[in-house]
Design brief:
Layout lengths: L11 E5 L4 H12 L3 E6 L18 E5 L5 H8 L4 E4 L13 H22 L4 E7 L23 H20 L2 E7 L1 E3 L7 H11 L3 E4 L6 E2 L1 E3 H11 L6 E6 L5 E2 H11 L6 E4 L15 E2 L4 H4 L9 H15 L2
Parallel strand pairs: 1-2, 1-4, 2-3, 4-5, 5-6, 6-11, 7-10, 8-13, 9-14
Antiparallel strand pairs: 9-12
Helix pairs in contact: 1-6, 2-3, 3-4, 5-7, 7-9
Length: 326
């Protein structure tokens, strides 16, 4: 595992969405390296159980609140020099989150946070968790940060791209630094949504049959959570006024292969895989990017490299989620 050279000790950081999957792992790393951490989370998708080791510990503070409340935002930002903005509605599938939800929970909440940062004037660095889906159907794989024009095909991707633009403008106008990470599919223990979570749940309901949305050829990059947190801390070493980094594994894995791995790790290797055929040429759903792999050369030049391949990340996660849901 790579070790970030930049010193994060003795700082006070705000982690929005810190009770969620990625956020709680980031909180672990920050607390383990001697920082003070304040978490704000509305617990809509996060859980206090993800933070139980830190509750009541010196240097840790939890606020239950919503970023849509400007007063709560202002209170959360006070005294913090670094802000890690991970709070968002994480659902990509349109049937699991409406355009209105993405607008409020992603765009409007980010705007509220940025206004609070501007008013307090104590933040030196903002780190934002964006997504590979801002690229849309990229015709260049692996896709570099400079690829364009960006044409997201899901409301989730569109909302994250809007947040990126707001962050760039606010950071430039108010003279603090901002780093945006465009993430591949991040997986690992504590995850509570996504294809691996869904597959494990489906096998629990019907051990003999595993439904796979689409034609099974969808192929994407999967990043293990430890590699993700390493990347978060590595990229800020060389941040400009506003920097954008891709963060993903070096390869891809098909959804059909993911299904086979989940069957093995869930103890149902004989389950029959049933493909739905999907929509729009075999996609799992409207807005599903069928092929995704990020070019991470920019971040790798700073000394970061993923420890796990996509298949290794999927297997470790399938094992953890199978235990988690047993």
């Amino acid at each position: 595992m790579s070790t970030p050279r930049i010193s994060f000790t003795h700082m006070k950081a705000l982690v929005t969405g810190g009770a969620g999957f990625i956020g709680s792992h980031l909180v672990d790393r920050l607390m383990e390296t001697g920082n003070q951490v304040r978490v704000i989370d509305n617990l809509a998708s996060g859980s206090l159980s993800n933070l139980e080791r830190w509750i009541g510990q010196p240097g840790f503070e939890f606020m239950e609140g919503d970023l849509l409340d400007r007063g709560v935002c202002s209170e959360a930002v006070e005294g913090c020099s670094r802000v890690f903005h991970l709070a968002a509605n994480p659902e990509v599938q349109a049937n699991k989150a409406s355009p209105e939800e993405h607008f409020h929970q992603n765009i409007e909440a980010t705007y509220s946070l940025l206004e609070a940062i501007a008013e307090r004037e104590g933040v030196e660095l903002l780190v934002f968790a964006s997504t590979s889906t801002v690229y849309g159907e990229a015709d260049q794989l692996p896709t570099p940060e400079g690829y364009g024009p960006t044409k997201p095909i899901s409301m989730y991707g569109a909302s994250k791209l809007a947040c990126e633009a707001l962050i760039s403008a606010y950071a430039s106008m108010h003279s603090y630094k901002a780093v945006t990470y465009r993430l591949a599919n991040v997986v690992g223990p504590r995850s509570n949504h996504g294809v691996i979570w869904d597959f494990v749940g489906k096998l629990r309901e019907n051990p003999d049959d595993l439904e796979v949305l689409g034609d099974g050829t969808q192929s994407k990059s999967y990043l293990y959570i430890d590699d993700c947190v390493d990347g978060f801390l590595r990229g800020v070493e060389s941040v400009e006024q506003v920097s954008v980094f891709n963060l993903g594994s070096m390869d891809r894995i098909s959804v059909l292969r993911i299904a086979e791995i989940v069957k093995e790790e869930a103890g149902q290797p004989e389950a029959k895989i049933r493909l739905t055929g999907g929509v729009d040429g075999g996609r799992g759903w409207k807005g599903d990017v069928k092929l995704m792999q990020l070019d991470t050369a920019y971040l790798c030049r700073l000394g970061w490299a993923p420890m796990y391949s996509s298949e290794e990340a999927v297997r470790l996660t399938a094992r953890a989620v199978s235990r988690q849901r047993s």
